[in-house]
Design brief:
4% strand; 2 domains; 4 helices; single chain; mainly alpha; elongated; 109 residues; 2 strands
Length: 109
């Protein structure tokens, strides 16, 4: 069943239409999703460029490598586990910070 059962129709001019299409595309939403997010008080952020996703892939690869190294070193008994865990958590916090900065939408105050 459809969650939205109320249809609203608005009239906009050509300039507003171009802005709506452009803004919705920049944030990766369709026009309806974009308008609804604005109504709910959110300010969608623009999608990051390709470099961001390349950086995220690189960070993810680093995380995987660290995890593999830790498993092997731990099985051989040659690593300071608390120190590794602390660094691994820092890396995960950094990844989350990047996601929050570039991908999450924020509510206007």
């Amino acid at each position: 069943m459809r969650k939205r059962d109320i249809k609203k129709q608005v009239w906009i001019n050509e300039k507003e239409n171009k802005m709506l299409k452009s803004n919705a595309k920049k944030v990766g939403l369709n026009e309806s999703e974009y308008i609804r997010s604005l109504i709910m008080g959110y300010k969608p952020k623009e999608l990051p460029d390709k470099k961001f996703y390349q950086d995220m892939d690189q960070l993810r690869g680093i995380s995987i490598n660290l995890n593999q190294i830790a498993k092997k070193a731990n099985s051989l008994g040659m690593i300071d586990a608390p120190l590794y865990k602390k660094n691994y958590e820092k890396l995960n916090e950094f990844i989350q910070k990047i996601k929050t900065t570039y991908l999450d939408i924020e509510k206007e105050k």
